[in-house]
Amino acid sequence: MTPTPVPVLQVQDLRLTLPGTARPVLDGVDLTVGAGETVALVGESGSGKSLTSRTALGLLPPGAIASGTVRVEGEDTLTMSAARLRALRTGDVAMVFQDPRAALNPLRRIGDFLTEGLRAAGTKQEAATARAVELLDAVGLDASALGKYPSQVSGGMLQRVMIAAALMGDPSLLLADEPTTALDVVSQAEVIALLTKLRERFGTGLLFVTHDLDLAAAISDRVYVMYAGRIAETAPAETLFAGPRHPYTAALLASTPRPTAQGGRLAAIAGQPPDLRTTIEGCAFAERCPLATGLCRERAPEPLPDPARPGHLAACHHTDRLVAEGTPADA
Amino acid sequence: MPEPLLQVSGLHRTFGDVHAVDDVSFTLNEGASLGIVGGSGSGKTTTARIVVGLESADAGEVRVRGRVRPARLRGRARRLAGARQVQMVFQDPYLSLDPRTSAEDVLRETLRLHFPERDPVPRIRELLDQVGLGARAAEALPRQLSGGQRQRVAIARALAVEPEVLVLDEAVAALDVSVQAQILNLLADIREQTPIGYLFITHDLGVVRCVTDELLVMRHGRVVEAGPTSDVLAAPQHPYTRLLLDSVPHPGWDPGRIAEARQELAVSERSGATS
Questions:
Q1: Shortest CA gap A86–chain B (Å)
Q2: Which of A281, A312, B143, B249 could form an S-S bond across to A306 if both were Cys, CB 3.0 to 4.6 Å?
Q3: Could B177 and A252 be called an inter-chain contact, meaning their C-beta atoms sit closer than 8 Å?
Q4: Taking residues A6-20, what's their average pLDDT?
């Protein structure tokens, strides 16, 4: 699926600096989600994937200085008025978080929670409740959930409630930040099936933030891989999985334990991601990369397309060597 | 035939009207690694907690090298001896480490408690070395360490006691993929170097493939399938095991089909077709 001319989300050259850090926590991020498209943003803790997704709602950490643009249906959230941002958050963009229990008030009924956004925006109670029942049905729950408290339903059901709540305002963009990480594998599959079905039915663009590369590849049209605040690689999901062009992506794929693999040792990536208190001269992954040379430590690589596949970009000086030599071995 | 390291037989535990653990039995041999997998509410963690002694069983017994492990360990000497049999590594190293104690100090404290007559210094160095922590990390407080480093401290603390059995409850679930691989490799190394037995509680079938040689699949408190890990994963017999395996994201994955399969399984269970 190719992005449509007016993407629901277009992030360009986004830079975000936090107080007390030596380098930008987001360093020139470019990312696009087309209408009705599912895009996965993959990275490890601290890579900046959640920060990136939150800028679509105009949510910045305290003291953050941002540059670049984050356009939602053409409008930049970084320069938006507070009133417009509020409207954006109740309508155009919605978010589903990792832990539904942390996102819900335990003392209020689910029905209250589902309808409060619409009621605050001026919708009548009956109409808001009717919409809530419709969406509960769409996520596979019946209207009896309206009268229940969060503690009375399971985690998987609560995450369905969160998805229903996110769709109440009929958003064009849904941000899902590790929405299945707290669930077991079977519940995860069910929530994913639901998100896929709803996206098709409502035509919502989906930005799916996850640390799980296999999950990302299985559900999305396109994948972005982030490392230390930069996009390391982006490609259609199948292409990325079959032929990664960035050593970090290749190493992540190789270090993922799979039930179908041979048992025994994994090809672990040595070391840790760079600390925010240090500056980075060249490529952020150079310190852990088996292919790194002097060039990598001097100059940060630009994301360049694969000549044969223009949609497959990798920010690596040695992507040719990676492709020629295969997956880097345990370093 | 040597005595099994850990022998669990006929464990039962109910919470209210929920039968959390329903007639669970298994054996762990010296140097072996047994995985228990299952979804939320399968009873895998309660089983682990009974083995460790954090929870008591309504019925059944836990034997370590043939000796019954009492449900309540009374008296200091017995508690220490009990701790030397079984140690546990938890999921969240943020919650399981004292925020005011460095890695070196927590090891010194543990060693002083269990082996007061020994000089702890060489053993501390050995343990830090074994789990791959450098001098700087050893002196740092937990909040100054990364998640992976913290889990290394928790593993070093458990190993300090020289336990016969190490229970790992979702011990790598909270870690990033690249760090998770490092810790899984570390656990494989430790198993090569010591006669320790692992009881690995996880929901992740990939992790199980990597670190266990025997596998139990639990559902609703019962063991529904057991066998060598490679056999169970290659040719699952029970529909629930198949459902778990199909749920793992892979190329060509069809989550819609999994949702249907779960429904079918629930229906067939209600009608008593599988038990």
A1: 34
A2: A312
A3: yes
A4: 94
Extract the tokens encoding B60. 């059944």
- Decide: A54 and A60 in contact? Cβ < 8 Å: yes
Give the C-alpha distances (Å, rounded to integers) separating B24 from A172, B60, B108, B226.
Answer: 49, 8, 37, 11
Contacts with B45 from chain A: Cβ below 8 Å: none
Give the separation between CA B125 and CA B128, rounded to whole angstroms: 5
Q: How far is A33 from chain B (nearest CA, A)?
A: 22
B80, B114 contact by CB (below 8 A): yes
Query: Would you call A136 an interface residue with chain B, using a CB distance cutoff of 8 Å?
Result: no
For residues A304-315, average pLDDT? 93
Rounded to the nearest angstrom, the gap between the alpha carbon of residue B209 and the centroid of all alpha carbons in its chain is 14
Task: State the architecture of B6-237 in CATH terms.
Answer: 3-Layer(aba) Sandwich (3.40)
What is the domain partition of chain B in residue ranges?
A: 6-237, 238-275
Give the pLDDT score at A324. 65
Option in A186, A261, A265 nearest B39 (CB): A186
pTM beyond 0.90: the answer is no
Residue A90 above 70 pLDDT? yes
Mean pLDDT, chain A, integer: 89
Contact A127/B at CB under 8 A: no
pLDDT in tens, A167-224: 888 899 999 998 888 778 888 888 898 888 888 888 899 999 999 999 998 899 999 9
Mean local confidence (pLDDT), A121-133: 91
CB A167 within 8 A of CB A84: no
For B209-229, the pLDDT digits (tens) are: 999 999 999 999 999 999 999
Residue-wise pLDDT for A130-142, tens only, equals: 999 998 988 888 8
Cβ–Cβ gap B210/A192 under 8 Å:
no
Residues of chain B in contact with residue A251, where contact means CB-CB under 8 angstroms, are 178
Closest by CA position to B86, among listed B48, B116, B131: B48
Minimal C-alpha gap between B118 and chain A (Å): 34
Q: Does A185 touch chain B (CB under 8 A)?
A: yes
For position A330, what pLDDT does the model report? 39
Which residue of chain B is at minimal alpha-carbon distance from A272?
B179
Buried/exposed A6-34: b ≥16 CB within 10 Å, e otherwise? ebbbbbeebebbbeeeebbbbbbbbbbbb
3-state secondary structure of B135: helix
Determine the pLDDT at residue A226. Answer: 96
Name the residue with tokens 């006669």: B195
Residue of B nearest to A275 (CA): B146
Domain range list for chain A: 9-92+171-325, 104-170
- The token pair at A253 is 């794929």
Q: Which of A194, A199, A258 to mutate to test the interface with B (most CBs of B within 10 A)?
A: A258
Segments of chain B with pLDDT less than 70: 1, 273-275
For residue A130, how many other CB atoms are within 10 A of its CB?
A: 13
Helix (H) or strand (E) holding A125: helix A125-138
Distance CA A198, CA A192 (A): 10
